[in-house]
Amino acid sequence: GMLFVIPKPERASFWMKNTTLPLSVAYINPAGVIVEIHDLEPLDEQPVPSAFPNIAYALEMEQGWFSENGILAGDRIQGLPASSGQ
Description:
The protein has one helix at residues 65-68, and strands spanning 2-10, 13-14, 23-28, 34-40, 48-49, 55-62. The chain is mainly beta and 86 residues long. A 4-stranded antiparallel beta sheet has the order 1-6-3-4, with no helix packed on it. It has a two-stranded antiparallel sheet with strand order 2-5.
């Protein structure tokens, strides 16, 4: 996977330009709580925005990884690097 640290918490938006494998993105607030999980389709350039305005992290994983591991919105991630929103 890939973790993105957003310098200042804001409404996030991810897309899949030049990415050929299906991914999912978890949008995470400054407290480390997953607030949304979205599937992203290969080569889709349409942005998938967060519904929440205070996203501090985005975690991209292979599509299906979150559900296969029982990870849901509302779960908290520990050990994240500091962001300016903490």
